[in-house]
Known about the structure:
By secondary structure, the chain is of the alpha+beta class. The protein has 2 domains: 7-67, no CATH class; 77-112. Helix content is 41%, strand content 12%. The chain has helices at residues 20-29, 58-67, 77-88, 93-100, 104-112, and strands at 7-9, 17-19, 37-40, 53-56. A hairpin with a 7-residue loop joins strand 1 and strand 2. It is globular. The two termini are 30 Å apart.
Amino acid sequence: MPNGYGEINEGPPHFKPRSIHRVSYEIHHGPIPEGLQVLHRCDNRACANPEHLFLGTNLDNRHDSMRKERTVRKLNRQKVLEIRELLEQGLTQRQIASQFGVNQTIISDINLRKGYLYR
């Protein structure tokens, strides 16, 4: 997928696309509880190695990102201000995320002024 995650089509009866890392987790570890995400220890979105996958909340994922400096090294205060300007100009969050090499959720957080990095 353009966002870096692998995808597979689930067979009958649903025939719907699913993230490969989630399918891998379920095969090797069991069902994913409601409200939890499958996170990557290796930070490689395309990875489906069950030893690299673990469960966490969205907040866990953000903390993991900050701890590993995945987001911080890509965005500084100046870039956050640029992103806000692009949002005001009408660019979509996905367009901006692609331009800055970050996830759309980060752009949403900047737009909503969520998180200490984005206020």
